[in-house]
Design goal:
Blueprint (H helix, E strand, L loop, with lengths): L32 H4 L1 H20 L5 H10 L12 H13 L3 H27 L1 H11 L14 H22 L2 H15 L6 H13 L1 H4 L5 H23 L3 H12 L6 H28 L4 H15 L2 H24 L15 H8 L14 H29 L9 H15 L6 E4 L1 H10 L5 E4 L11 H7 L1 E5 L15 E11 L5 E12 L12
Parallel strand pairs: 1-2, 1-3
Antiparallel strand pairs: 3-5, 4-5
Helix pairs in contact: 2-5, 2-17, 3-4, 3-19, 5-6, 5-7, 5-16, 6-16, 7-8, 8-11, 9-15, 13-15, 13-17, 15-16, 18-19
Length: 537
């Protein structure tokens, strides 16, 4: 019986060998560039498509992106919800490209591309170059890197640094050089500056060290402490900001948890829903892998299962299983205990370990024994599945609103609202608009597209917008844009609303189909000498 190519090249090396703890392909086989060129072509096409398609279909940025933009106007070391890195990234893009919405979709794709690079490096170190190509293709087949990508927010930024932390930690663990420990600390620190939920990964990696005999040895070596020092150096300014601001972001996390409580049934529904979200995220990867393996007989299936078990029991396999399953199980258990619903996007980074895990366990996908590169069936499956995410997004933004008449929030015409508020302001005020008070989508939209780029005073709450100078606000006045109607006779931030208007915020599809308007209350709040106690009318 001829040997199965999928069984060739297995190399389970001891921890002292180099490359350590790795499973590599047979040295006689090297990837054919002509047979793998489609992989960078697929990823490049995805970058362009997920930049330009949302720019055409959407009339406004997602509220998460708008919020980050008005945070980023003020270079703080933290904001009331999140650490600063996503907001700073948005502000840098604004400095270069202004309100061009395609630039923010490209920013999202840039961070996703960085995650691809981290997963490629991790998988190459563990299973070879062909497996690395398979892993990045699999990562391109999830809604987190496609359908959800136009929503640039801290999850997107964390996605990149989660990938690099996992990849660099593996290098630090297996090569035990100061440079890799230091870079791991930097990546982990930048992850914390992106979103605190990377703490789940950091706790997982610490647990891996503590539970592994080889890992515990690193506590007696300098590398781990070099990484810890680098990590603390990166996050130190944010820690100081937290101390100076009464740990405001942690208060937001507690409030956010309360908002997601789903009642007594949540102790069952919450974790099951979260686990379902994680299965949904990898379902297209599993489908592509299944197609790539083709129709398997009982004997070949048995050999592949035995090989997968052998690889997953290796140190490399154990590492990937640990960093994939432990965070998922930890949050599922937390949801079961507390009854808190884990939101879908909170699990975005958890998917990152799945592609290298599949690429390691299923070497047949790499086309071992073939001179033409990755397994042809897998290539066909990937190239067929990837465009379906574009179709799904088009249905969400174009077809579904066009049929129902109800807009998606990104179908709203952002520049139209900003123009209406600016025109209302100029009718009675001679100076530039410096501040807009209101809710996130409305005030954030005005701030983005208005020529003077006013600051946002979110809900007129100083805790949410600490950059607002009350004395300056009283002197210069503000515009108002919110879903909430001003209360007659009641001042807003010490200012009296005038020219209160129920503005029909227009929405339309990219093909020009008019959709249902959204009522937004806009007004002018003229400056005054002293704060108002009551207002006329």
């Amino acid at each position: 019986m001829p040997s199965d190519p999928a069984l060739a090249g297995l190399d389970l090396r001891s921890e002292g060998s180099h490359p350590p703890l790795s499973i590599v392909t047979a040295p006689a086989r090297t990837p054919s560039w002509s047979g793998t060129l489609w992989v960078p072509a697929l990823l490049g096409a995805g970058f362009v498509a997920w930049t330009l398609l949302p720019a055409w279909l959407a009339g406004n940025l997602h509220p998460d992106t708008l919020e980050g933009l008005y945070w980023g106007q003020h270079w703080l070391w933290g904001y009331h919800k999140h650490p600063p890195l996503a907001a700073w990234s948005s502000e840098l893009v604004h400095a270069a490209f202004g309100s061009a919405n395609w630039a923010y979709y490209a920013l999202s794709q840039a961070y996703i591309a960085a995650a691809f690079a981290g997963i490629w490096l991790l998988t190459r170190d563990i299973a070879g170059r062909r497996a690395a190509l398979v892993a990045v293709v699999l990562l391109a087949l999830t809604h987190y890197t496609t359908y959800a990508a136009p929503r640039f927010n801290p999850n997107t930024v964390q996605f990149a640094f989660w990938a690099w932390t996992v990849a660099l930690f593996w290098r630090a663990l297996t090569r035990d050089r100061a440079v890799w420990w230091g870079l791991t600390g930097v990546a982990a620190g930048l992850g914390v500056l992106s979103k605190y939920s990377i703490g789940v990964l950091l706790a997982t990696l610490l647990a891996y060290l503590l539970l592994s005999p080889s890992g515990r040895r690193h506590f007696a070596r300098p590398g781990f402490y070099i990484g810890l020092a680098a990590f603390l150096a990166v996050i130190a300014p944010h820690l100081i900001w937290l101390l100076q601001n009464d740990f405001v972001t942690l208060g937001y996390l507690a409030d956010r948890g309360d908002e997601t409580l789903i009642g007594p049934s949540g102790h069952l529904v919450g974790p099951l829903s979260f686990l379902g979200d994680q299965l949904f995220a990898i379902a297209p990867m599993l489908l592509a892998a299944a197609i790539g393996l083709g129709a398997l007989g009982r004997e070949r299936t048995g050999r592949l299962v035995r090989l997968a078990r052998q690889r997953l029991r290796s140190p490399a396999g154990g590492y990937l299983v640990f960093v994939y399953l432990v965070p998922i199980l930890a949050l599922a258990i937390a949801s079961a205990v507390t009854g808190i619903r884990i939101r879908t996007m909170w699990g975005m980074s958890f998917v990152l370990a799945a592609p290298p895990l599949l690429a390691l366990a299923l070497p047949a996908l790499t086309g071992q024994g073939l001179s033409g590169g990755i397994a042809p069936r897998f290539r066909i499956a990937a190239l067929a599945l990837a465009p379906l995410f574009l179709v799904g997004f088009t249905v969400l933004m174009l077809v579904k609103p066009g049929l129902s008449g109800t807009p998606n929030i990104m179908n709203l015409d952002g520049p139209a609202l900003s123009t209406a508020v600016d025109a209302l302001w100029r009718r009675s005020q001679s100076g530039p608009l410096e501040t807009v008070i209101g809710t996130i989508p409305e005030a954030g939209t005005v701030a983005l597209y208005a020529g003077s780029r006013p600051q946002v005073f979110e809900d007129a709450d100083p805790a949410l917008s600490p950059w607002v100078d009350p004395a300056r606000l009283l002197q210069t006045g503000a515009a108002y844009a919110s879903r909430r109607q001003p209360v007659p006779g009641q001042p807003i931030a010490g200012l009296c609303p005038q020219s209160v208007t129920a503005y029909p915020w227009p929405a339309r599809t990219a093909l020009g189909t008019a959709l249902q308007d959204r009522t937004v209350w806009i007004a002018v709040l003229p400056g005054r000498a002293a704060p108002a106690i009551t207002c006329p009318g």
